[in-house]
Design a protein that fits this description.
The chain contains 6 helices and 2 strands. It is mainly alpha-helical. A two-stranded antiparallel ribbon has the order 1-2.
Length: 148
């Protein structure tokens, strides 16, 4: 990729990385114009100030326009979302993989007696550190005062 192409991609990513920018575009993907209030509801949990800022940035970038019916995607905005349409299919597959990974049993931890366990000392040739003493109810730590 040329330096000029890298700069264009970086510029576009900077615009899309802004908080809620992709959500605003995604909310307009069906092609129907939305009023400010409807767009705010579609995006969800966005403040009016943040939505105003994102709309302004996306309009300046030529991705969103405002007409009598409300906000909608420009031809450029539609083209961008068409190119991002594979994101939905990818997201579904990715999420399924995450669920499978979370449901998979964790590999067993290596036992301390196995030859593959790392040595317990931090310096080579040092004597092994003694095992920690077992705690007992008669330890020197006073009981917690609960104020009762």
């Amino acid at each position: 990729m040329s330096t000029k192409e890298n700069a264009a991609v970086s510029q576009l990513l900077a615009l899309l990385e802004a908080r809620y920018a992709l959500r605003v575009l995604w909310a307009l993907r069906d092609g129907h114009a939305q009023t400010f209030r409807l767009l705010q509801d579609s995006v969800g949990s966005i403040t009016p100030n943040t939505l105003n800022t994102r709309i302004k940035e996306l309009r300046e970038a030529g991705l969103v326009s405002h007409g009598g019916d409300g906000y909608s995607l420009t031809v450029s905005g539609q083209d961008l979302l068409k190119r991002l349409s594979d994101l939905q299919a990818f997201a579904g597959k990715w999420q399924l993989g995450q669920v499978k990974k979370a449901a998979a049993p964790a590999p067993p931890a290596p036992s301390s007696n196995s030859p593959s366990a790392p040595p317990s000392s931090s310096s080579p040739g040092a004597a092994p550190s003694p095992a920690p003493a077992a705690s007992s109810p008669s330890s020197s730590v006073p009981p917690l005062d609960t104020g009762n």
